[in-house]
Design goal:
With 375 residues, the chain is an alpha/beta fold. It has helices at 37-48, 73-82, 108-126, 156-178, 202-216, 229-234, 239-248, 284-296, 314-337, 340-348, 352-374, and strands at 5-10, 56-64, 86-92, 140-144, 149-150, 183-187, 196-197, 223-228, 252-256, 302-304. The protein has one domain (5-338): TIM Barrel, CATH 3.20.20.
Length: 375
């Protein structure tokens, strides 16, 4: 029997439409009047969970206070428990409130308010949402740096970085006092919501926790990176090597699986494009990462940070999430069946064409696994 695999579904995927240059009302059943966060959890339990293999455990991710707050947290926790789901990740929705740096802001009022939002996120996780934790895989508190950016080159960037370090250290200490059980991860991003960001890469996130340990005495054993595939892809970085860095530093505490689209030869997107957030693709890169995770013994949550297509209806949107989860599971199965010893032998002998054949066969195998599970 396959080992339990943890996959989480994001509240923000279930939106009525992207808006802007495309319709904002494609999925009327998912607008805020028709689908709240507890309802979304029940929807996942009813429509997605039954389509999963027995070894997959599902969780939910949400922003405080845009998607879960003090008013609906109790009902949300009940919906998770009743649907046999878990709280996988919670994040302060600072980007909904702060546009001038958030906890890194040079404006002391904004910085203080952003810090309070982070503390309240910890409070709600340890409060009404605690009943929905999976005791074998507690949630991750993720800091998404959509607020931590700037659009002007000045010496003030250094002060913003100092503010960021001090505020994250304060949040880590606040969480430790609350219980010290959550994992804390920073999600790197090169741009959005600002042209330039304070933590643009995986290396940036790993470094800042080392600095927090050196300068503030923060225990970083449960701190690290929320690995976001698409954010590396957006600037043309190698998310396979990113995985090596994260694992080598014991810094992968959470994952966001998605794709910007350029690496499977079918879906368009890639470096220089905006954050498209397609679901997981079956490709050689993902099989390689799945193999690295297997060898490292990674057993934490794998979140599907994805958007349905601008033209999808509700049924198609649900199907996209199902496909994403099964695609990653298929990559994991193919990685487990890959003859790693033979692969390394070929690479040692410089027989790279034959090594390519092995990886291509693994992609075919993964697609077969997907087809078997999906039907």
């Amino acid at each position: 029997m396959a080992e339990k695999s943890l996959h989480s579904v994001c509240r923000w995927t279930f939106n009525p439409g992207k808006g802007g240059f495309v319709p904002g009302d494609m999925r009327q059943a998912w607008n805020s009047d028709n689908l709240d966060t507890p309802g979304m959890a029940r929807l996942v339990g009813e429509k997605i969970a039954p389509k999963m293999p027995d070894h997959i455990k599902l969780g939910i991710e949400a922003h405080y206070d845009a998607e879960v707050d003090d008013n609906n947290a109790g009902e949300f926790a009940d919906a998770l428990v009743d649907s046999k789901l878990a709280l996988a990740m919670i994040t302060p929705g600072a980007h909904s409130h702060f546009a001038y740096g958030g906890i890194a802001s040079l404006d002391p009022g904004e910085r203080k308010a952003a810090e309070e939002l982070g503390n309240k996120t910890v409070d709600i996780a340890y409060g009404p949402l605690k009943k929905a934790w999976d005791t074998d895989a507690v949630p991750t508190l993720v800091l998404w740096n959509g607020s931590y950016g700037y659009d002007m080159a000045t010496i003030a960037i250094q002060q913003m970085y100092r503010n960021l370090k001090e505020s994250i250290a304060g949040l880590c200490k606040y969480e430790a006092d609350a219980g010290g059980k959550l994992y804390i991860g920073i999600e790197p991003k090169p741009n959005e919501g600002h042209p330039a960001m304070l933590i643009p890469t995986v290396a940036s996130a790993l470094l800042i926790f080392r600095k927090l340990e050196e300068e503030f005495g923060i225990d970083r054993s449960r701190c690290g990176v929320n690995k976001e595939f698409g954010h590396s892809e957006m600037i043309g970085l190698d998310h396979v090597y990113d995985s090596v860095e994260e694992l080598d530093n014991d810094g992968m505490v959470h994952m966001h699986l998605n794709s910007q689209g350029y690496n499977d030869g079918i879906i368009l997107g890639g470096p220089g494009k905006y954050d498209i957030d397609h679901g997981t693709r079956i490709n050689g890169m993902n099989i390689a990462i799945a193999g690295l995770l297997k060898n490292a013994g990674f057993k934490r949550w794998k979140g599907h940070d994805m958007q349905t297509r601008a033209y999808d209806n509700e049924e198609q949107g649900i199907d996209r999430v199902v496909r994403s989860i099964l695609s990653w599971d298929a990559c994991e199965q193919a990685a487990a069946e890959l003859d790693e010893k033979q692969l390394m032998t070929l690479l040692t002998k410089r027989e790279t064409a034959q090594a390519e054949d092995m990886m291509r066969a693994a992609v075919v195998n993964a697609q077969k696994k997907f087809d078997e599970m999906y039907k």
